[in-house]
Design brief:
single chain, 155 residues, mainly alpha, two-stranded antiparallel sheet, 7 helices, 71% helix, 5% strand
Length: 155
């Protein structure tokens, strides 16, 4: 009887946990296409323009045109770091958005790398991976689905 009681308690706790997670997921507001588009535009201003200027200056001073790839690599590392550790790029953060996993937590570096690779795929297929955000119920692009991430509004 003691084993049956313990098994019942475990099942009860699991059901309670699932109900709590369902309640939490209903309170989540997913970020749609246009707000994420605006975030990407802001990232272009905040990250892209300084990176472009830095590339130009690096090429001008070193006279090595391939040195611009160093800046591009730095931009990728910065983006992955921001997404994984801080919850999003500056554009997302300014707009009150964050990238989370299925548990509502920051995604970490490995998932951020996977998400970044998914963005490349999203772009290669004529941007359709990004357009998916517009019609998906949880507003996930292909890169979000690949990495199992969500972009949500901060509370």
């Amino acid at each position: 009887n003691l084993q049956k009681l313990q098994k019942f308690q475990q099942q009860y706790l699991l059901i309670r946990l699932k109900v709590e997670n369902m309640k939490k997921s209903k309170n989540v507001k997913y970020a749609g296409f246009w707000i994420r588009f605006l975030a990407a535009f802001l990232d272009g201003l905040i990250i892209g323009i300084p990176a472009l200027i830095l590339q130009f200056l690096l090429i001008l001073t070193t006279r090595i045109s391939s040195s611009m790839y160093l800046v591009q690599l730095g931009t990728i590392v910065f983006t992955v770091y921001m997404d994984g550790i801080k919850g999003g790029t500056p554009g997302k953060l300014v707009l009150g958005l964050k990238i989370v996993n299925e548990k509502g937590q920051f995604i970490g570096i490995p998932t951020a790398i996977l998400r970044y690779l998914g963005k490349i795929v999203s772009g290669i297929i004529l941007g359709i991976g990004y357009l998916m955000i517009a019609w998906d119920s949880k507003k996930q692009g292909l890169h979000d689905k690949i990495a199992k991430t969500f972009v949500v509004y901060k509370k």
